[in-house]
């Protein structure tokens, strides 16, 4: 059973971004499909941790590009990123507590709603507005640090090959 199936409505209009988004969904599917209740094991715990790190890095990069480009809808977009991170943290907590299976349907619905609402609307608008601006997927993180006061991850971007 696939937790989140890719849909055309998730497309942003940028094939490289869509590819990255497909990888995120694949990561969620491969971790969540295999979760069963029982004593938590280190491998699943690591995979959940890797998934959270992957999604966090994707968001940090997108948010850095938005700040750099003075994107007008930065804050609501960032707030919606936090919603998915909260969902993933909730899944991790449920797994640790051994109650994931009983909440599986609720988690799947929340994840499905988020992906349906974020990729095809907020990310699609972002990449449409950025137009010729640097493509987040073509950038790489050269420095990263956490500003705990502002609850922000600061990222210094460089373009690949430069
Ligand atoms: Fe986004
Ligand atoms: Fe994105």
Give the topology string: H per helix, E per strand.
Answer: HHHHEE
- Report the CATH superfamily: Hemerythrin-like
Structural class: mainly alpha
Annotation, overall tally of beta strands: 2
Task: Report low-confidence residues grouped into runs of 5 or more.
Answer: none
CATH architecture: Up-down Bundle
Query: Quick one: CATH class?
Result: Mainly Alpha
- Count of helix runs: 4
Q: Span from first to last CA?
A: 43 Å
The biggest beta sheet is recorded as:
2 strands, antiparallel
Whole-number tally of structural domains: 1
Radius of gyration: 16 Å
Approximate shape: globular
Q: Can you tell me the CATH topology? A: Four Helix Bundle (Hemerythrin (Met), subunit A)
Share in β-strands: 5-15%
How do the strands of the widest beta sheet line up side by side?
Answer: 1-2
The hetero compounds bound to this protein are: fe (ii) ion
The percent of residues in helical segments reads 55-70%
What is the residue-mean pLDDT, rounded to a whole number?
A: 85
Layout of helices and strands:
Blueprint: H1 15-33, H2 42-68, H3 74-97, H4 100-130, E1 139-147, E2 152-159
Antiparallel strand pairs: 1-2
Helix pairs in contact: 1-2, 2-3, 3-4
The protein binds fe (ii) ion (2 copies).
Labels describing this entry:
single chain, 162 residues, mainly alpha, Four Helix Bundle (Hemerythrin (Met), subunit A), two-stranded antiparallel ribbon, 4 helices, 2 strands, globular, binds fe (ii) ion
């Amino acid at each position: 059973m696939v937790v989140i199936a890719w849909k055309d409505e998730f497309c942003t209009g940028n094939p490289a971004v869509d590819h990255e988004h497909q990888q995120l969904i694949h990561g969620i599917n491969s971790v969540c499909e295999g979760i069963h209740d029982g004593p938590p094991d280190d491998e699943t715990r690591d995979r959940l941790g890797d998934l959270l790190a992957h999604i966090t890095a994707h968001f940090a990069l997108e948010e850095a590009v938005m700040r750099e480009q003075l994107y007008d809808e930065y804050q609501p977009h960032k707030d919606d990123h936090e919603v998915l991170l909260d969902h993933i943290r909730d899944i991790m907590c449920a797994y640790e507590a051994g109650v994931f299976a009983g909440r599986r349907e609720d988690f799947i619905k929340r994840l499905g709603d988020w992906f349906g609402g974020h990729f095809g609307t907020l990310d699609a608008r972002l990449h449409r507005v950025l137009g010729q601006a640097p493509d987040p997927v073509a950038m790489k993180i050269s420095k990263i640090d956490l500003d705990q006061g502002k609850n922000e991850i600061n990222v210094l971007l460089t373009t690949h090959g430069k």
